[in-house]
Design brief:
The chain is of the alpha/beta class. The protein folds into 2 domains: 69 residues, Beta Barrel (Ribosomal Protein L25, Chain P); 158 residues, SPOUT methyltransferase, trefoil knot domain (Alpha/beta knot, 3-Layer(aba) Sandwich). 30% of the residues lie in helices and 27% in strands. The protein contains 7 helices and 12 strands. The protein has a 7-stranded parallel β-sheet, sandwiched between helices. The chain has a 5-stranded mixed β-sheet with strand order 1-3-4-5-2. Strand 6, helix 2 and strand 7 form a beta-alpha-beta unit. It is elongated, with a radius of gyration of 21 Å.
């Protein structure tokens, strides 16, 4: 069933009117070409889902009636991920992939060799819209909003049972940390920026209890490294 995001969806209200300014209006009316009687799955990003029927469509309004609703359990993941801010299109791909793979929290950050340094004010809105669309597509009922941009020191200070960073200069390999991944209740996975980590940053990572491991003998692009690293860690953690 086709899914739409209805942020104000609650169990206490059975009728909703979507104006032309609603984020789903154009998609329902002009892309999906919906008509009265069509059914949609709706979700509010907080676990509440339901089935809605379109009862009226006009040039400036869509009226929905909720037929049923259900509170879904969260799809648990013990993995949080810190990802560097990189170029626009690859970063959008990363965000979509993270939602599909299902993680707990996303921490975008800037470090010494990050290429992207300045953030437009509307960037967070765009990122969270991407997360909504990816959640619609993947069946995630809980949104993972991005709340702020972190600097490298904030990532260093984060607490977690296991903090992992991938770097080609490491002596350890993924197989060497398998037991630690299984035992950890919470994991922080740190992906390096396009320019890599500086020697100073690598020293700080070790001082702040990050386990540095080698992902691949080749140098991977940030988007490839992110999906590869997350998939491996989730597999070892029993989440794939």
């Amino acid at each position: 069933m086709r899914r739409i995001f209805l942020q104000n969806f609650t169990k206490n209200l059975n009728e909703y009117n979507l104006s032309q300014t609603h984020r789903e209006f154009h998609h329902i009316k002009n892309v999906l070409r919906a008509k009265p009687g069509d059914l949609f799955e709706v979700f509010n990003g907080l676990g509440l889902t339901g089935v809605a029927e379109i009862v009226k469509i006009s040039s400036n309004n869509i009226k929905l009636i909720i037929k049923s609703s259900e509170q879904k359990e969260i799809r648990f993941s013990k993995v949080n991920i810190a990802i560097p801010v990189i170029k626009h299109n690859p970063y959008n791909f990363i965000l979509k992939s993270l939602i599909q793979l299902n993680i707990n929290k996303i921490f975008p950050y800037i470090s010494e060799y990050s290429i992207a340094k300045n953030m437009p004010k509307n960037k967070f809105e765009k990122w969270n819209n991407i997360i909504i669309e990816a959640s619609k597509q993947s069946g995630n009922n809980y949104l993972i909003p991005i709340e702020k941009l972190y600097d490298f020191n904030e990532i260093l200070d984060m607490k977690s049972d296991l903090k992992i960073c991938f770097n080609n200069s490491a002596d350890k390999f993924i197989k060497d940390i398998q037991d630690s991944v299984v035992k950890a209740k919470e994991i922080l996975l740190l992906i390096g920026p396009e320019g890599g980590f500086s020697k100073f940053e690598l020293n700080l990572l070790e001082e702040n209890f990050f386990t540095i491991v080698k992902l691949n003998s080749n140098i991977l692009r940030s988007e490839v490294a992110t999906i590869t690293a997350l998939s491996i860690i989730k597999f070892l953690a029993g989440e794939l």
